[in-house]
Design goal:
The chain is α/β, with parallel strands linked by helices. 46% of the residues lie in helices and 18% in strands. Strands 3-2-1-4-5 form a five-stranded parallel β-sheet, sandwiched between helices.
Length: 156
């Protein structure tokens, strides 16, 4: 069995660059592209989550089941767009990829997936945040590097 490479992506240019590097550096590996649906960290602020912009009739500050259905639908559409771009990139390299859609906090999901699916290496982008932004937002890449059970390649 060949190497299994996990490439977490949220669709940013850096995460797609990480996928391109994985496809180039590990042409014979099984490459798994993982997108994590995260209601706080995937482009929505806490205010967006707690004060829905959807027309679901719920009062501000509450979150209705309809809101979560709409959020989930939009998140799945975004994930499909990310996967479509990833498949195009793999096609450009005459390679194939597997895709997986998960839900949760990205750090935890990436680490759990790596452990539970016999991943040999993680290749991921880093946004290089610093200062207050890093303190407030955190760094998924840093957490993964510190806690991963396998080697991690960070792409900048």
């Amino acid at each position: 069995m060949g190497q299994r490479i996990l490439v977490p992506t949220e669709g940013s240019p850096l995460s797609m660059k990480a996928l391109e590097i994985a496809l180039t550096d590990y042409p014979d590996a099984d490459i798994i592209v993982c997108h994590v649906m995260d209601p706080i960290g995937s482009g929505l602020s806490l205010i967006d989550v707690m004060r829905p912009t959807f027309d679901d009739g719920a009062p501000p500050g509450s979150v209705s089941p309809e809101y979560w259905r709409e959020w989930n639908q939009k998140a799945e559409q975004k994930a499909q767009a990310v996967f479509d771009e990833a498949h195009e990139l793999a096609d450009d390299h005459d390679n194939t990829i597997d895709t997986v859609l998960e839900f949760g906090e990205p750090n935890d999901v990436i680490l759990e997936y790596a452990e539970e699916h016999d991943i040999d290496r993680i290749v991921m982008g880093s946004h290089c945040r610093s200062g207050a932004e890093r303190f407030l937002v955190g760094s998924v890449a840093e957490t993964v590097v510190r806690r991963a059970p396998v080697p991690v390649m960070i792409v900048r």
